[in-house]
Design brief:
extended, mainly alpha, single chain
Length: about 100
């Protein structure tokens, strides 16, 4: 579907998708939808998460907030590299599988 819309270009026998160049208007339309979907998925995953998972994510989030407040983009990026796989490992929901 994304290829049909021109958003990605499929590369045969390479096993990956190459994103096609997006215009500023494309991004203005895509990011609000992505934010809604990701928020919904996060809310559903948190409902199924174990207390230990939530404690771990909260600790990483506090580090992210400290780096953001200090304007430390490098520190924020590094902490975010831990947050993403940790949050992605929460129990998936039917409509939000990775």
């Amino acid at each position: 579907m994304l290829a049909a819309e021109g958003l990605v270009t499929l590369k045969p026998r390479r096993g990956l998708l190459m994103f096609t160049e997006l215009s500023e208007q494309d991004l203005d339309e895509i990011y609000p939808v992505m934010a809604l979907l990701e928020g919904r998925c996060a809310a559903e995953a948190v409902q199924k998460a174990r207390p230990a998972d939530l404690k771990h994510l909260k600790a990483i989030h506090e580090v992210l907030e400290r780096h953001a407040g200090a304007g430390d983009t490098d520190g924020f990026f590094e902490a975010n590299q831990e947050f993403i796989p940790s949050s992605s490992s929460l129990p998936a929901t039917a409509g939000c599988s990775r």
